[in-house]
Design brief:
InterPro entries: Na/H_antiporter_dom_sf (IPR023171), NhaA (IPR004670). By secondary structure, the chain is α+β, with helices and mostly antiparallel strands. The chain contains three helices and two strands.
């Protein structure tokens, strides 16, 4: 038998449970989803605040700004709302 005076970290680890193959990805997914939900909530509150502020006309007018692609006489231009 070989005694390791420094202690081998690999031999001291407990074996992983079979449920870890599912719980680790699930925990990661929930952290990502929680961050995405917080970002969505932040921008929703900001949009509602801007729409009800003195800058509402400029904010709502930005949604009608035409964006698109134009090549020669062909163009594909729409507003952000798609109208």
């Amino acid at each position: 038998m070989h005694d390791d005076p420094q202690g081998n970290a690999d031999s001291a680890r407990l074996p992983e449970e079979s449920v870890h193959w599912l719980s680790k990805p699930l925990a990661r997914f929930l952290r990502i989803e929680a961050v995405a939900a917080a970002v969505l909530l932040f921008f929703t509150v900001a949009a509602v605040g801007l729409a009800n502020s003195p800058w509402a006309e400029a904010f709502l007018g930005a949604w009608e700004t035409p964006i698109g692609l134009q090549v020669g006489s062909l163009d594909f231009v729409r507003s952000i709302t798609g109208r």
